Q: What sequence folds into this?
């Protein structure tokens, strides 16, 4: 299958030079928001006379070409006034456009032809762009706008557990999502054990989720890409946004450094439960000194250098800090974790058909744990650090082709689990920290090729490779766990090399502008793995590279969909089916207990298997009008099979859900009043429960039954929110948001545990199953302002 | 050290953290329909260096099967064939009173019999209920205890403390250490019938190095003392004036992995983060563990130095 696809892709790519011989002229430029100067992602430009068009890329750049002639160029973006210009196309030319936001009116949003039909007309499948303003209107937990929780409201995307920002796409694990913030990988996107995501809504410009048909410029993950772009900063005037909520407050400042040329944005958020709680904890309490907080900082500057170049520097820094004290034992601990990213980018327009971007990216995720009691100190730390260089080109040789090619290199440093300990002056030698190093690289090329007006192909090929390098010590263990041998590798020495081709193919046949069918096939290699010992995602989960023992994850996905819009694209509908196969999945061995890694490698504790998932997704969306929203339904199955788990029999993954329903509705009653409602339903989580027990050493020891054989009761919940814009002038806006989480206070299960009460020595023990629910009805109010 | 050992379990801390940040939660009893487990023989057997082997056999049961004196007694297997061999000598053990064991009965052999010796491997064969269950364990010689020291621990009382054990791992092989202690004071209520296990250590963390560790009084993980019956006032510490024997026991890796996974399983049993964690038994075709202990021992009277 793969070799035929590679052949087909090469055939498509080789078609590209033919396009060079046609007598075409190109129009290119950028599209920006006239009010803020922000570049607009996904804005469309069409030539009205022949319907040829293009959309802006992530940097707001577009390029299209057509035969010599006179055309009406129309640029449009939802919520903005159309821009029209007559163009005499007799040479290549640059036309940069600033679109003005529509004035707020009570009349229904104007609908123009050819607009908002991307879901039908684009070849790509399984891609969803979310506008940050849409997200801000959806009811939120504790008043905090949350990108990742909104993502969970889309078909094919499942949340982990109650309130958790982690997500699972089409049967893939949480490590199989590539989460990018300005191109930098975010390895842990959750605050407060996942109840909040690390993305501050005020600093985010756009969110693009790709859950199937992943284009060739993306790689390194099997399931999805969540590509989040930060705002560039207003280059017209100084501007501020902020909010005061129940648990956190935030402030964003942005403005021009040089008007029309350079701007900055600075955004911060911090929780304050720890500060508010301190006065209520008595000085005599053994837990005095315990607390928790998190914070985020986003910053970005950009500079337009002439007509052809633009540079960006953006960064994110966030931390969760949990402190716990027990003064009875003189015990203190501090647990801290968080991400840091830094991205430098240079956009260059070579000519009207060729655009490039160079990125240098630094990413760091750290988890640390420090504890002390009297003279004893101990702790451990883990993390992952990347140095990443990318070169991406977009070449538009003709209106029928949009070619992307580029290369990417990442130097990875993994510190999976390292410990230290000391007692007074004595340091215990816990050995050299287990640090793993690796090179990862990729080359790619893809072409979006409109073969005819109705039929188009998006074909891509990615060649990726991964090399684990020294220094490293490999420990070999026998079946009882004793070390039988060890091999030392020197600095830079190649330990293991993996690589492969990743063909990507999507085809579309449009019956007309309202209806199309699409199919796609993707093959992905993933060289990184997330080891997870708990039943939910935790900051202690460890990123681990492919090694001699751990082979790269390989995923293949087939999908087929039909897309139909109604009433001039006011209503969008689709049905997609998919099948996904995943090789080289990892789990910990039964009975594994985390510990120090002296004279051992973490991967000696792993076992390997495969997974597969299939399902269908139904989606109805009302995209335009005063009432908007969507209804999604997913019917799916997700299974795993490991020789060393569950007696080698297949079992359902923890996040296998037979049914998932999401209903979201937003209504604008007036410019001052907007209300939204969300209702979600899903089959209960699969989990493994004790089925038997025995007594050992006077204690009850549990025997677990078949893996994930038990289902919690279904999850469902309704949330409501109302936004009242109390004041809106050119200089100041004040809005109140009241949200109610879990309106009918459904006691959804968060976890189930078994309690033993009584005294075994007296032969009186009562065992019972107990269900814990986290959040009943929770109202929250947030005040948002901008100036 | 008791506290630090407890709280260095990151999952315990994370559970505490979750409880700390979630301001409201709701819990209720529910009914779950659990399938019955396959019936298996549970082995609780050990052979200490210098002592005879001891084996207690029982059956597993359904999770919600009643636990009372009658059912506990019924779960004990009285009529099994139990054979222990050191490769040269073979003994058949019989079910009888055994005062040196936690439950005061089990499969033992009176003299003459196989006596635990460092460096020897011991095979256990059990035939019970039509099942044949086997296991092996090796007694590893324990390094000598360099010294013991009693020091006040905690901020609330200067008459309670931990016993610090000083020893040197010889760096010979990978092994676990199980510390055990027994109060031998003549004062009523301040002596123990048998040695009770305390801390479990892995020499990976101090391979070939000097090491010292604060030993508290064994908690309920040991002899089956429930939390409410345990002497809470002493907060798992030794009282000024106590006379205590401390044992440094070496165990092989399969035994270490078993005991460690039992502890982990118990820690995780009521945790939302608990992964399903079947313990790593060294018993073929059964559950439980057969453990050889190499022993070093010293006595201390608890007074500050």
A:
């Amino acid at each position: 299958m793969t070799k035929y696809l590679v052949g087909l892709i090469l055939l498509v790519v080789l078609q590209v030079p033919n396009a060079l011989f046609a007598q075409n002229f190109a129009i290119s430029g950028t599209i920006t928001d006239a009010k803020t100067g922000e570049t607009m992602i996904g804005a469309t430009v069409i030539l009205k006379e022949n319907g040829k068009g293009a959309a802006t890329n992530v940097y707001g750049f577009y390029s299209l070409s057509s035969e010599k002639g006179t055309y009406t160029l129309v640029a449009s973006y939802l919520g903005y006034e159309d821009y029209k210009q007559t163009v005499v196309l007799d040479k290549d030319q640059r036309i940069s456009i600033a679109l003005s936001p529509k004035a707020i009116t009570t009349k229904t949003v104007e609908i123009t032809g050819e607009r908002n039909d991307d879901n039908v007309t684009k070849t790509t499948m399984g891609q969803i762009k979310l506008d940050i303003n849409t997200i801000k209107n959806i009811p939120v937990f504790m008043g905090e706008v949350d990108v990742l929780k909104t993502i969970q409201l889309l078909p094919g995307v499942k949340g982990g557990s109650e309130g958790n920002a982690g997500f699972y796409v089409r049967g893939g694990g949480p490590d199989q999502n590539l989460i990018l913030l300005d191109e930098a990988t975010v390895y842990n996107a959750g605050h407060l054990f996942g109840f909040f995501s690390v993305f501050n809504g005020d600093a985010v410009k756009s969110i693009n989720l790709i859950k199937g048909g992943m284009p060739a410029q993306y790689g390194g993950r099997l399931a999805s890409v969540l590509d989040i772009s930060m705002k560039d900063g207003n280059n017209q005037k100084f501007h501020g946004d902020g909010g005061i909520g129940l648990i956190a407050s935030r402030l964003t400042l942005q403005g021009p450094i040089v008007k029309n040329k350079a701007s900055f944005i600075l955004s911060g958020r911090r929780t304050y439960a720890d500060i508010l709680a301190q006065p209520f904890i008595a000085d005599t309490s053994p837990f005095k000194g315990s607390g928790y907080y998190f914070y985020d900082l986003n910053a970005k500057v950009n500079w337009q250098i002439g007509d052809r170049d633009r540079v960006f520097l953006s960064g994110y820094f966030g931390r969760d800090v949990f402190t716990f004290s027990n003064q009875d034992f003189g015990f203190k601990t501090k647990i801290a974790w968080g991400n840091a990213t830094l991205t430098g980018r240079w956009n260059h327009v070579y000519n009207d058909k060729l655009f490039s971007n160079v990125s240098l990216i630094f990413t760091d995720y750290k988890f640390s744990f420090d504890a002390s009691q009297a003279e004893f100190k101990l702790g451990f730390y883990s993390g992952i650090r990347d140095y990443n260089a990318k070169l991406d080109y977009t070449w538009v040789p003709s209106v029928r082709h949009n070619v992307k090619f580029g290369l990417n290199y990442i130097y990875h440093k993994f510190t999976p689990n390292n410990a230290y300990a000391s007692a007074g002056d004595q340091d215990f030698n816990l050995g050299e920290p287990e640090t793993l190093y690796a090179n990862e690289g990729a080359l790619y090329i893809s072409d979006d090729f409109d073969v005819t007006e109705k039929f188009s192909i998006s074909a891509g090929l990615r060649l990726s490779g991964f090399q684990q390098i020294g220094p490293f010590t490999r420990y070999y263990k026998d079946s009882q766990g004793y070390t039988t041998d060890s091999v030392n590798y020197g600095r830079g020495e190649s330990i293991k090399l993996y690589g492969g081709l990743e063909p990507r193919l999507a085809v579309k046949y449009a019956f007309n502008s309202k209806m199309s069918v699409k199919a796609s096939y993707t093959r992905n290699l993933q060289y990184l793995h997330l080891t997870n010992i708990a039943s939910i995602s935790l900051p202690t989960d460890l990123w681990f590279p492919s090694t001699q023992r751990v082979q790269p994850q390989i995923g293949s996905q087939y999908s087929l969909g039909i897309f139909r819009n109604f009433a001039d694209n006011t209503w969008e509908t689709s049905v997609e089916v998919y099948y996904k196969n995943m090789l080289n999945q990892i789990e910990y061995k039964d009975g594994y207990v985390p510990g120090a890694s002296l004279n051992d490698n973490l991967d000696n504790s792993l076992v390997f298997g495969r997974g597969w998932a299939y399902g269908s997704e139904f989606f109805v969306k009302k995209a335009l009008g005063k009432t908007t929203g969507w209804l999604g339904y997913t019917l799916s199955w997700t299974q795993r099979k490991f020789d060393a788990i569950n007696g080698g029999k297949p079992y359902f993954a923890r996040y296998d859900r037979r049914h998932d329903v999401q209903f979201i509705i937003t209504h604008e009653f007036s410019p001052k009043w907007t209300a939204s409602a969300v209702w979600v339903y899903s089959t209960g989580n699969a989990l493994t429960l004790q089925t038997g027990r025995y007594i050992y050493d006077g204690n009850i020891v549990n025997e677990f039954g078949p893996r994930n054989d038990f289902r919690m009761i279904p999850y469902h919940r309704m949330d409501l929110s109302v936004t009242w814009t109390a004041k809106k002038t050119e200089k100041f806006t004040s809005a109140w948001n009241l949200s109610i989480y879990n309106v009918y206070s459904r006691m959804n299960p968060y976890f189930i545990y078994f309690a033993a009460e009584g005294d075994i020595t007296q032969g009186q023990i009562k065992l019972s199953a107990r269900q814990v629910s986290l959040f009943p009805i929770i109202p929250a109010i947030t005040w948002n302002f901008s100036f | 050290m008791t506290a630090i050992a407890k709280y260095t379990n990151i999952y315990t801390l994370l559970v505490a953290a979750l409880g700390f940040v979630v301001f409201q939660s709701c819990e209720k009893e529910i009914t779950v329909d659990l399938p019955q487990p396959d019936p298996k023989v549970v082995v609780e057997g050990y052979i200490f260096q210098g002592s005879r082997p001891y084996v207690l056999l029982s059956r597993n049961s359904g999770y919600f099967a009643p636990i009372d004196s009658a059912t506990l007694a019924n779960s004990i297997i009285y009529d099994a064939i139990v054979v222990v061999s050191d490769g040269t000598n073979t003994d058949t053990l019989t079910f009888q009173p055994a005062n040196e064991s936690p439950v005061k009965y089990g499969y033992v052999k009176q003299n003459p019999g196989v006596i635990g010796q460092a460096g020897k491997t011991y095979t256990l064969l059990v035939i019970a209920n039509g099942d044949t269950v086997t296991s092996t364990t090796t007694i590893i010689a324990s390094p000598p205890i360099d010294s013991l020291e009693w020091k006040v621990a905690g901020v609330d009382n200067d008459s309670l403390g931990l016993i610090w054990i000083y020893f040197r791992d010889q760096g010979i092989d990978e092994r676990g250490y199980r510390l055990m202690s027994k109060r031998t004071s003549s004062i009523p209520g301040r002596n123990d019938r048998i040695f009770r296990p305390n801390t479990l250590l892995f020499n990976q963390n101090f391979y070939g190095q000097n090491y010292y560790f604060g030993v508290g009084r064994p908690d309920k993980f040991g002899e089956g003392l429930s939390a409410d019956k345990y002497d809470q006032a002493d907060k798992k510490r030794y009282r000024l004036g106590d006379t205590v024997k401390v044992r440094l026991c070496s165990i092989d890796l399969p035994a270490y992995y078993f005991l460690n996974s039992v502890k982990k399983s118990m820690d995780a049993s009521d945790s939302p983060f608990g992964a399903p964690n079947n313990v790593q038994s060294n018993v073929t075709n059964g559950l439980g563990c057969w453990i050889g202990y190499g022993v070093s021992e010293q006595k201390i009277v608890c007074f500050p130095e």
Q: What stands out?
A: Residues 2-12+141-254+293-301 of chain B form a domain with the Immunoglobulin-like fold (CATH 2.60.40.10). The first strand of chain B starts at residue 26 and ends at 30.
